[in-house]
Structures are given as structure tokens and as C-alpha cells.
């Protein structure tokens, strides 16, 4: 009964703005004899099969200690998870009552999946295969362990990669035979290097308000970022480089191909040889440590937009990074049963106390 009540609350809170809600939980709840709400599944592929092929349905992938495996999409869906880094010394406490992740291995995108959106998931890899252009894919607030890759000689457009946490060295469409158009990589945290190298026919590639170690980028507009590496080579080819913060001496450590527009060692209002300790707080949770330190040179250091100079880094700009990838839906962050977790004998009710937030 306790699990069912929690489930009903979650479904109610999440249904406020949805078309059709499909719930996935691979835990014990769907394997016992308790009644469960409609549109509930223990296998994510069953939920995908049940989703409307015209799009608009939302799949809530509930947190679990057991991964949900890999999926292949041929219809547009939105898949929402629980976020990440929700407890422990590396996490941000009191954001979710359930602190497990919603884990998938590989998400493969094929024809028909155009318009899909992924929020708050832990994913090893995203694989774009025969998906058509305009691709119209959003990857947001996800914890990504591997790469976002495409198939050689294909074209992809309208992809938003925002407010994610890349745990390892990141590869984003790092293939010189792929043509990219309207790709926005913004407000992400990269714990290590960033690699993105597409064809010379690519256009309108934006890398803005991120933080990472060393960039290896081709064809991007690179602005308002923080690069924390103090050694090794940083590489920009055919990039516009403006208002970035470099921990290294850019003139000494940057290998540059042809640069269009302002850029280079001391042009484009870039700051070089900055101490990491003066730029970010560099302590606390694994994503919170990238918040700006008091007096940071990144404060108000971004490219001027109509007289407004945003902060550099993932917590700046119009759509800042959200700690732990918390989805923009109501969540329960505290839940207690003051009189025990069973319905008292002779009573039809069970008293619960819960706290929620909107996360808008």
C-alpha cells in the first residue's frame, strides 16, 4: 500500500502538463499483486511500443538500482528520469526523495524519432543513425558517460545539447564526414576534454556557456566558456572565439587553424592564464563545484547582448545549468509516514507527510 500511494502521488504530480503519461518501473512494485495505475510498465520497450506514434507522450523512467538497458526509437517520445548526484559527498542532497538514477545504456535514434526529448537520465551513449533532418532532438539535464555519435556521411540538424553533465572525455558528433546544422551545445559541464569535428559543410554550430578541460573543436562559435586545463594543447579550427576564460596561457597552448572573426591569443575579449581557484568554487558536489567563485572574472564576462553581459560558464546565460539534472516537473523531495507505513486496523486511510517543489 505504501508503494502504491507513492506511485499515485508521483503520477498525479507529473501529469500536470502531459499528453499521455506512461510510467516505467522495473522494481518489485509491478511484480506483486497490488493494483497499479493504467499505463504502467516494468519494461521500457513495452512503454515505447504503447506510445502514440504521432508524438506527445511522456515516459517517466522511474529511478532504480537496476539499469533499464538499451532502447531504439522510431517514434517521437519524451523520456524523463530522476536526475543524478542526489546524495553522498559528491551529490546535492534534499532534491529527490528517491536518490537512485534512471539508467539507460544506449539510446539509438532512427527514422521516426525526430522531435524526441530526453531529460534527467543517466545514459552511456546516444547514437544517431538513420534519423532524418530536421532532427529536432533535445538532450537536456542528462548524466552522460560516453558519446553522442552519428553515422558516417549522414546529416543532422536542430540538435540541442543543454545542461548535461559529461563524466568522461566527451565526443559529440566527432566525425569529419558528418554534416551538422544548427547544433547548440550550451550550459554543459564537461569533467574532461571535449571533441567535436564535423565536415566543412557544417553550419551554425554553437558552443556557449560550458565548462570543460580541453576543447578540440571545429567550426563552432565558441563563447562564454570556462576551460580549466592548465597544460596540454587546446585546438580550435575555423572557430570564432569570444569572451572565454582560459586557465592556460592561450597563446602558448592553443593550436589554431584558420579563425574567422575575433579570436586568437588575446583577441575577442578572452581572458588567459586565469587561476581556477579564482574562477570557480572548485569544491562541494561534483557539479556544484563549477559555480563561480566570489569575485570571479567570469562574472559578467560573457558576450554583450543588448547591453547585458551574462556570466561565463554553465551557471550563466538565459538557461543556466540545474544542479543534479532535476527535471522541470514537480518532484517529491521528502516523504514520511508519521504513524507507520501500514493502514491501521479498522481504518481506511494512511497518514503521510510529503514535501514537493515545482522545479520550474
Describe the structure.
With 360 residues, the protein is mainly beta. The chain has one domain. It is built from four helices and 28 strands. The strands form four sheets. Strands 4, 6, 8, 10, 11, 13, 14, 16, 17, 20, 23 and 26 form a twelve-stranded parallel β-sheet that branches. The chain has an eleven-stranded parallel β-sheet with strand order 2-1-3-5-7-9-12-15-18-21-24. A three-stranded parallel β-sheet has the order 19-22-25, with no helix packed on it. The radius of gyration is 22 Å and the shape is globular.
Which descriptors would you attach to this protein?
360 residues; mainly beta; twelve-stranded parallel beta sheet; eleven-stranded parallel beta sheet; 31% strand; disordered N terminus
| Number of separate structural domains | 1
What's the pLDDT, averaged over the residues? 85
Give unreliable regions as ranges.
1-18, 259-267
**Main sheet: strands, sense, barrel:** 12 strands, parallel
Helical amount among residues, as a percent range? under 10%
| Separation, N- and C-terminal Cα atoms | 30 Å
Note the overall shape.
globular
> How would you classify the helix and strand content by structural class?
mainly beta
Count the strands? Answer: 28
Please report the number of helical segments. 4
Strand content of the residues, in percent? Answer: 25-35%
Rg: 22 Å
Brief account:
With about 350 residues, the chain is mainly β.
Amino acid at each position: 500500500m505504501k508503494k502504491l500511494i507513492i506511485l499515485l502521488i508521483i503520477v498525479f504530480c507529473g501529469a500536470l502538463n502531459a499528453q499521455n503519461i506512461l510510467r516505467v518501473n522495473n522494481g518489485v512494485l509491478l511484480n506483486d499483486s497490488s493494483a497499479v495505475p493504467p499505463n504502467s510498465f516494468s519494461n521500457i520497450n513495452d512503454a515505447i511500443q504503447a506510445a502514440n506514434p504521432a508524438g506527445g507522450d511522456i515516459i517517466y523512467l522511474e529511478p532504480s538500482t537496476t539499469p533499464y538497458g538499451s532502447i531504439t526509437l522510431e517514434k517521437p517520445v519524451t523520456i524523463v528520469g530522476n536526475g543524478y548526484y542526489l546524495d553522498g559527498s559528491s551529490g546535492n542532497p534534499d532534491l529527490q526523495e528517491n536518490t537512485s538514477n534512471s539508467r539507460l545504456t544506449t539510446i539509438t535514434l532512427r527514422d521516426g524519432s525526430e522531435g524526441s526529448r530526453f531529460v534527467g537520465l543517466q545514459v552511456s551513449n546516444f547514437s544517431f543513425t538513420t534519423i532524418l533532418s530536421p532532427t529536432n532532438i533535445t538532450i537536456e539535464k542528462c548524466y552522460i558517460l560516453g558519446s553522442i555519435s552519428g553515422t558516417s556521411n549522414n546529416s543532422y540538424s536542430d540538435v540541442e545539447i543543454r545542461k548535461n553533465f559529461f563524466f568522461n572525455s566527451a565526443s559529440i558528433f566527432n566525425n569529419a564526414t558528418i554534416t551538422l546544422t544548427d547544433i547548440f551545445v550550451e550550459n554543459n559541464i564537461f569533467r574532461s576534454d571535449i571533441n567535436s569535428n564535423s565536415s566543412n559543410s557544417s553550419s551554425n554550430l554553437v558552443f556557449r556557456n560550458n565548462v570543460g578541460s580541453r576543447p578540440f573543436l571545429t567550426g563552432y562559435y565558441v563563447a562564454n566558456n570556462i576551460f580549466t586545463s592548465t597544460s596540454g594543447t587546446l585546438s580550435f579550427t575555423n572557430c570564432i572565439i569570444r569572451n572565454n576564460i582560459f586557465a592556460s596561457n592561450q597563446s602558448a597552448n592553443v593550436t589554431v587553424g584558420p579563425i574567422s572573426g575575433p579570436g586568437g591569443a588575446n583577441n575577442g575579449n578572452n581572458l588567459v592564464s586565469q587561476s581556477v581557484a579564482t574562477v570557480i568554487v572548485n569544491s562541494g558536489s561534483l557539479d556544484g563545484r563549477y559555480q563561480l567563485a566570489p569575485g570571479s572574472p567570469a562574472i559578467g564576462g560573457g558576450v554583450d547582448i543588448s547591453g547585458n553581459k551574462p556570466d561565463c560558464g554553465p551557471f550563466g546565460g538565459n538557461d543556466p545549468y540545474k544542479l543534479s539534472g532535476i527535471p522541470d516537473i514537480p518532484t517529491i523531495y521528502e516523504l514520511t509516514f508519521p504513524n507507520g507505513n501500514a493502514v491501521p486496523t479498522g481504518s481506511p486511510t494512511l497518514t503521510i507527510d510529503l514535501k514537493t517543489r515545482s522545479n520550474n
